[in-house]
Design a protein that fits this description.
- InterPro entries: Aldolase_TIM (IPR013785), DapA-like (IPR002220).
- Pfam families: DHDPS (PF00701).
- It comes from Microbacterium hatanonis.
- This is Dihydrodipicolinate synthase family protein.
- It is built from twelve helices and eight strands.
- It has an eight-stranded parallel barrel, surrounded by six helices.
- The chain has one domain: TIM Barrel (Alpha-Beta Barrel), CATH 3.20.20.70.
- The chain is of the alpha/beta class.
- About 45% of the residues lie in helices and about 15% in strands.
- Helix 11 crosses helix 12.
């Protein structure tokens, strides 16, 4: 049976004025803890990490470890534009008890492969006895990671896998061809839990599953059954949810508000869903909650 981890990328809740809603964030953590998913990805893209300061990072990591740690793996994202900042976030999270980490490549300014490798060497050293995922997201970071570079990063101490966002199945296959079988590859494409598995990924990091986890769990079970009709039906449900909510944090938070989980908004400059979108969000909640 193939491994199909579902790791939930969790949104951060903010008040309407942009201030951190720590209690709302904790309510989301507690909701996700009941999902049955294998892990939680905290303070990644879905968590609006570029807009989180150091004190907020500390508070959110502490809350996540308390509210999620007994129920699922907690992967803390520490990626920053510099190794200095990323290492500092590793140190804070380790002090709080975190042992699994992910780090986006450096971002915004162009960076050569050697500089990216040096960045991950520093982060890997800071992780110590923990484990580290390389987070590859060239459409947001501006930094490409070639298969050759990933193969080198995979040999660093503590680097156990990679999260790959908005890249093709062929890209995932290319990464799989240069790393060991036990090196974990997670796709960031919510709907590709099965498709990515067919080219060597061991799971998905899914923001949509923070809102409606059941369709994703049903798809994983269907894939394990091997029944083509069951898989097609489960995939259609996931596709429907992803089409409506997708990697859109304001829509995720609108859904969480509608379900009474947390009354949160986004801090970053994102477009709020209109009435038509809100109606569709309510439709998929009714259908798949």
């Amino acid at each position: 049976m193939s491994r199909r981890d579902i790791v939930t990328a969790i949104p951060t809740s903010f008040h309407a004025d942009g201030s951190l809603d720590i209690e709302g964030s904790r309510a989301i953590f507690r909701y996700v803890a009941q999902s049955g998913n294998e892990g939680a990805f905290v303070l990644g893209t879905t968590g609006e990490f570029p807009a989180i300061d150091e004190d907020e990072f500390r508070a959110l990591v502490a809350a996540a470890l308390e509210d999620l740690g007994g129920r699922m793996r907690v992967i803390v994202h520490v990626g920053r534009s510099s190794a200095f900042e990323a290492v500092r976030r590793v140190e804070i999270a380790r002090e709080l008890g975190a042992r699994e980490f992910a780090a986006l490549t450096p971002y915004y300014l162009a960076s050569a492969e050697g500089a990216v490798e040096s960045y991950f060497e520093a982060v890997s050293e800071a992780v110590g006895d923990g484990s580290l995922f390389v987070y590859v997201y060239p459409k947001r970071s501006g930094i490409e990671v070639s298969p050759a570079l990933l193969a080198r990063l995979a040999k660093l101490p503590n680097v156990i896998g990679a999260k790959i966002s908005e890249m093709s199945l062929d890209d995932i296959a290319a990464y799989r061809s240069v790393v060991d079988d036990d090196f974990v590859l997670y796709t960031g494409a919510d709907r590709d839990l099965v498709a990515a598995g067919e080219v060597g990924a061991q799971g998905v990091v899914s923001g949509v599953s923070s809102v409606l986890p059941k369709p994703f769990r049903a798809l994983a079970a269907a894939a394990d059954s091997g029944d083509s009709e069951t898989i097609a039906s489960a995939q259609a449900a996931v596709d429907d949810v992803v089409r409506i909510i997708g990697g859109d944090m304001p829509r995720m938070k609108a859904a969480l508000r509608s379900m009474g989980v947390a009354d949160g908004r986004s801090r970053m400059a994102l477009v709020e869903p209109d009435d038509e979108a809100l109606a569709e969000i309510d439709r998929v909640i009714a259908a798949y909650r």
